[in-house]
Amino acid sequence: MKDNFSRSVIIALNDIQLQTALDRGTTRGVNNRIVAMGETTDANALRHQARLARERALNHLPDLLQQLERNVIANGGHVLWARDAAELNQIILDLCRKHDVRRVTKGKSMVTEESELNHALEANGIEVTESDLGEYIVQLAGETPSHIVFPMLHKTKEATAQLLHDKLGMPMTDKPEDMTRFVRGVMRRKYLEADMGISGVNFAIAETGTIATVENEGNNRLSTSTPRVYVAVMGIEKVIATWEDYAVLVQLLARSATGQRLSVYNNLMSGPRRADEPDGPDVFYLVIMDNGRSRILGTEYAESLACIRCGACLNACPVYQNIGGHAYGWVYPGPIGSIVTPLLLGPTRAPKLPYASSLCGACQAACPVEIAIPDMLLRLRRDLVQAGDPTPGWRIGMWLWATAFKSPVLYRLGGKMAGMATRLLAGRSGKIKSLPPPFDAWTKQRDFPAFAESSFRERLKRRRGKQTDA
Ligand code: SF4
Fold first, then answer.
1. Residue 364 falls in which region: left (phi positive, over 0), alpha (psi -120 to 50) or beta
2. Ligand 1 nearest-atom number relative to CA 373
3. What's the CA gap between 445 and 454, in Å, rounded?
4. Which in 231, 308, 343, 442 has the greatest CB count within 10 A?
């Protein structure tokens, strides 16, 4: 991943279609979540329960993973372990060869986005079709998902209709239901032709070795039960201890992700088809990938592994609302992506992301598992500073800033001088249109308002004086 964050942000801010799509999508996401959480008797108590469930899992991760493995095998499945993305792709490629697989249908899986599994399989002559509607549209467009839950959040329905018309000959329509019906017709054939189904995992319940996925289209159920081979792929952090924990987490996931009380399909897979069952796969594999997660465990960033990938923090984030997911440059966008990406890829691969936040706290307030996102972003900034990432200009600037803020006299003097300078530069309009470098980074995007004639303290003092006189 190349660090193009600043350039990508400018492109995103100037993309009118993206801005329209982001506005529609994130507003809907925020509002739906608020309504759904408001329907619970005590949303905060529920969130706290969810948090405890995730902590239980992370505190006992090695034991739970072993218990999960034992139970999956007892259920007739197979468990394979991948150290990293390359190993994951190789394992699945080997499974394709072993089972003579030519066509794959794939449900939503962020882990396979991490490993770019589609490219790896396609490079070896295997056809992969994304089965989630949003993922399928993104695949058709040759793009990557821009949101954890709504992969095509960056696309308007108008752009989607045009894409389906151009690529698949769909008659033009502005009705999403017509587009869905059309894609459904295409997908039905794919399910029937597929030799292997692959899906992500929302939760893996250790006590029974059950894989839980949630969805709203039935695509995952068809992807995993129609083909003869089913492969579930998960990161090590997806394991949870018990069904009680699942009961809490699954409803919070739906409420936070899509504003539903429960997702339409809650699929539970416990091994391959049994002799007395009419359908289901002949063979079932669970592939568990680390890819840097165990490095995070036990550090001050461990709680980032508690994330249940609901996407609520993305919708709530004023930065994501304006730049969308692609600007973040990798699989995980938004506030949680700004933490996970530098942690998984290394801080030097994404040095700007921890700064891509106003630290307003909207992400933490929205998070169903109470992850302290702003705290971790601050710690990552600290790490970057300690690693010597900032430029000399930045260091001098921060030193001047800290010195002025520690001294009331310097602070007041600095305020006065800055006030005079900005009013001089702004003139009668009260707004500076262009600042000299390096401050022009600000005025390239927006005006800089001149400071007020008198400071807040001065006005308060005058007001208090008048009140005392009165
Ligand atoms: S950090 Fe919290 S709000 Fe954001 S995706 Fe993860 S669980 Fe959802």
1. alpha
2. 1
3. 27
4. 231
Q: Is the CB of 319 under 6 A from ligand 1?
A: no
Instruction: Give the C-alpha separation, 48 to 203, whole Å.
Output: 18
Q: Say yes or no: CB of residue 308 within 6 Å of ligand 1.
A: yes
The answer to whether the CB of 309 is under 6 A from ligand 1 is yes
The single-letter DSSP state of residue 290 is -
DSSP 8-state assignment for residue 436: P
Ligand 1: which atom is nearest the Cα of residue 308?
7
> What pLDDT is recorded for position 2?
61
Query: Residue 410 Cα, ligand 1 centroid: separation in angstroms?
Result: 42
pLDDT in tens, 366-416: 999 999 999 999 999 999 888 876 678 778 888 888 998 899 999 888 888
Q: What is the pLDDT of residues 60-102, one digit of tens each?
A: 999 999 999 999 999 999 999 999 999 999 999 999 999 999 9
Distance CA 43, CA 450 (A): 43
List pLDDT tens digits, range 430-454: 899 888 887 888 888 788 999 988 8
Check pocket membership of 367 for ligand 1, CB cut-off 6 A: yes
- Compute the distance between CA of residue 255 and CA of residue 159 in angstroms, rounded to an integer: 28
Closest CA to 452 of 460, 440, 464: 460
Would the CB of 369 count as within 6 Å of ligand 1? yes
Q: Which atom of ligand 1 is nearest to the CA of 310?
A: 8
Atom of ligand 1 nearest to the CA of 316: 3
Domains present along the chain, CATH in parentheses: 14-294 (3.40.50.10420), 396-469 (no CATH)
User: Under DSSP, is residue 286 helix (H, G, I), strand (E, B) or coil?
Assistant: strand
Tell whether ligand 1 has an atom less than 6 A from the beta carbon of residue 362.
no
**What's the mean pLDDT in 33-48?**
95
- How far away, in angstroms, is 268 Cα from ligand 1 center? 22
What's the sign of the alpha-carbon dihedral 341, 343, 344, 347?
positive
